[in-house]
Amino acid sequence: MSNAPQLKDPSLFKKDVAYINGEWIKAQSGKTFEVHDPATGSLIGTCPEMSRADTTAAIAAATAAFPTFRTTTPRQRARWLHKWYTLMMDHASDLAALITWENGKPTADAAGEVAYAASFFEWFAEEAPRGDGDTISATVAGNRIFTIKEPVGVCGLITPWNFPAAMITRKIGPAIAAGCTLVAKSPGETPFTGLALAELAHRAGIPKGVVNVVTAMQNTVEVGETLTSSPEVRKVSFTGSTGVGKLLMKQSADTLKKLSFELGGNAPFIVFDDADMDVAVNGAVASKFRSSGQTCICANRIYVQKGVYEEFAKRFAEKVKSFKMEQMGANFFEPTVITGMNMQMQLASEETFGPVAGLFPFETEKEVVDMANTADVGLAGYFFSKDLQRVYRVAEALEVGMVGVNTGLISDPAAPGMVKALIKLHKESFLSCQVVELMLSSEAPM
Ligand SMILES: NC(=O)c1ccc[n+]([C@@H]2O[C@H](COP(=O)([O-])OP(=O)(O)OC[C@H]3O[C@@H](n4cnc5c(N)ncnc54)[C@H](O)[C@@H]3O)[C@@H](O)[C@H]2O)c1
Ligand SMILES: N[C@@H](CC=O)C(=O)O
């Protein structure tokens, strides 16, 4: 059975070509790889199996484009990003259809991803003109120190299949805003969405060589080695598994690259006795089952205080039972809730990355914070409580980069990863501290 969508604009579906130096080209070897619909296993199409030679050509294009692109005004780069954002929204239904086709996520999730992905271009268009330096008092009387920010250069971007659009745009947005050029390696399982985005970059008028997208499946390691060993590539930004992150960091050592990594998670999700039960149940559903439980910031261990454990488990399981699968089949795993978990079980220490929710009972705040902090990774965490003092205490005690309080959704283009950035208080009051990382070089004295 084929789920091939009828696109309103079929030219967004790019088969057998990738985007280098403003042109749609095949792999130099002529080789291709197959991409399959994860729902049915049927063939979607083929993509170029790019190699070291193709990646080197893409790096050369980005290197040649950089001297001119870095001198464009931030305002002009903001316009390009805005245009790209508008084109994404104009083609939102086609992009969502491509995402569902190659990734398998539900159509509502795919539509949400397109809006989220486009929001990175909108947000970084607004940031582009604000990459100013500082004025600092010097230690010598009468002197002042000025700093300016410069684009770091060619960026190598590597992204995963679980967000075929959003993980690419969250890297390209800041790169373009800062005046960097780039080579993106899209995920082998879901390359067509990234290629459709490249087509929209072309239509937005982004100069040739600024955005290059290479595709590979069998040659993934070779492409990664080329990006990480190239002296022309000044920064690598990677989202994916911790194991591959470690490898890329080692490979980048010889050329001393700047690195930004978003790696695996194992988020604790804590429901205290005093939580608003409706908010907590809805938050757990949103955090655990968004994108079928395949997000790095998914609730992985759901800790529920004993006083509300039974009620929470019943209401949460009822919600999950009411899910309607768009189709059933061998490639789907039914959303599952497991109660009575303990810390010796595998789910307590491993990222599940799927639609399985394990519920752990706990008694005291100290006990749950200790359990939450046993993980060897600390990407995100969530908790639900109406006690304002507990909110600040627990938010600071959790050893994670992002904390959601009374919310299960913390993805936001304005929230930097790996920083305790987002605290959403009960009754919608909102506290946040933002550290915006544009892809800029270290500040140089004027
Ligand atoms: N922190 C985040 O924002 C975030 C987002 C999505 C996924 N993830 C994590 O990623 C994992 C699941 O995604 P995955 O299985 O696609 O991860 P993965 O690390 O296998 O793949 C991610 C990307 O890296 C590429 N890749 C794999 N091996 C490579 C190599 N040797 N050299 C260069 N590139 C290589 C893949 O082709 C893909 O494009 C989970 O652990 C998840 O938590 C994290
Ligand atoms: N980093 C992602 C989620 C990871 O899978 C996000 O932006 O939400």
UniProtKB/TrEMBL annotation:
Q: Name one GO biological process term.
A: gamma-aminobutyric acid catabolic process
Enumerate the spans annotated as Aldehyde dehydrogenase domain.
24-326, 331-414
Please give the Gene Ontology molecular function terms for this protein: succinate-semialdehyde dehydrogenase (NAD+) activity
Main EC class the enzyme belongs to? oxidoreductase
- Cellular component terms per the entry's GO annotation: cytoplasm
Asked whether the UniProt record includes Oxidoreductase among its keywords, one would answer yes
Q: Does the keyword Plastid apply?
A: no
InterPro entries given in the database record: Ald_DH/histidinol_DH, Ald_DH_C, Ald_DH_CS_CYS, Ald_DH_CS_GLU, Ald_DH_N, Aldehyde_DH_dom, Aldehyde_DH_Superfamily
User: What EC number(s) does this enzyme carry?
Assistant: 1.2.1.24
Residues of the active site are E262
Q: Which residues form a coiled coil?
A: none
Q: Superkingdom of this entry's organism?
A: Eukaryota
Question: Keywords, A to Z?
Answer: Oxidoreductase
As for family, the record states: Belongs to the aldehyde dehydrogenase family.
Q: What is this protein called?
A: Succinate-semialdehyde dehydrogenase, mitochondrial
Report the source organism. Answer: Ramalina farinacea
